[in-house]
Automatic annotation (TrEMBL):
Organism per entry: Paenibacillus tyrfis
Job of this protein: A translational regulator that binds mRNA to regulate translation initiation and/or mRNA stability. Usually binds in the 5'-UTR at or near the Shine-Dalgarno sequence preventing ribosome-binding, thus repressing translation. Its main target seems to be the major flagellin gene, while its function is anatagonized by FliW.
Gene3D superfamilies noted in UniProt: Translational regulator CsrA
Pfam hit, one: CsrA
Record text on subunit structure and interactions: Homodimer; the beta-strands of each monomer intercalate to form a hydrophobic core, while the alpha-helices form wings that extend away from the core.
Record-level Gene Ontology MF annotations: mRNA 5'-UTR binding
Subcellular location per the Swiss-Prot or TrEMBL entry: Cytoplasm
A cellular-component GO term for this protein: cytosol
Name this protein carries in UniProt: Translational regulator CsrA
NCBIfam families membership: csrA, PRK01712.1
Gene designation: csrA
Magnesium listed as a keyword: no
């Protein structure tokens, strides 16, 4: 991981089309602005993790439902 020090108003460039700007520093919180092309999606990490968790739970529920359907079919045959 690259760690850089920046002051308010300073920025960091990623490649030649993404700029991370330090817009404010308030106590232990840093506000950043991100300038990037509109085709680049930018998400907070905790949002991505929540979506991944939700997808895992949905997949598990689907698998459980599939098992239940198979059990019901087996019970109907007997």
């Amino acid at each position: 991981m690259l760690v850089l020090s920046r002051k308010k108003g300073q920025s960091i460039m990623i490649h030649d089309n993404i700029e991370i700007v330090i817009s404010a520093i308030e106590g232990d919180q840093v506000k950043i602005g991100i300038k990037a092309p509109s085709d680049i999606k930018i998400y907070r990490k905790e949002l991505i993790e929540a979506i991944q968790q939700s997808n895992q739970e949905a997949l598990s529920a689907k698998l459980d439902l599939s098992k239940l359907k198979n059990m019901m079919k087996s019970a109907e045959k007997s």
